[in-house]
Predict the 3D structure of the following.
Amino acid sequence: ASTVNVDWLVIGGGGGASLGGGGAGGYRSSGSGEPSGGGGSAEQTAVVASGTNFTVTVGAGGAGNPNSTVGVPGNDSNFFYVTSLGGGGGATGGSGGPASDGGSGGGGHAGWVAGLGTSFQGFDGGGTSSGNDASGGGGASAVGTAGGGNVGGNGGNGVASSITGSSVTRAGGGGGWGGSVNGSGGSGGGGDGATNNGVSGTTNTGGGGGGGITLGGSGGSGLVVLKYPDSATLTIGAGLT
């Protein structure tokens, strides 16, 4: 059977925030010399036999939660044999709980550790903060920063890709809530921290949600991009573009 070379970009759904920012969805990429997240290099182009059926899943972002509950992790995205993990949820205050692990880890808060990222997908969230502030979620290209001195930590930045024809940065971590100054979301769709309701991550970037004292922002949905020769035909299922 004939085969088709398919380059791909697969990003998991971003993690929801609480006080700590949500982690970005895992970021994996093939071809064209473009990097993957978490310090990884470009992976192998997929070689798909003509007539092959394969599943594509675009992971939803995780919901943001009040400051007593950890943010909800994002959902995984899949293409063929590739899985990019959803981002970790941001940590809470009080007795709530630590941030969760994911493609990139959620941001920590005083007394609660940050979530861990996944090798070659994303980075850790910002570490345990001190005082009345929270840390940023990890991004595809950088660790989130820790909060301190009533200043929320910033989300880690994302990674740029030109697979769609122009350079677009995606998979930034969410900023943490701060007692006086809120953290900023990382480049690539990370939501900013806010005094009341954190800003949600941007749709189809896998950006993490921003932390908020009242309600954390939700993570942005993930993305799957497939690039193949125009001599080939791809038949897609309902709900995909």
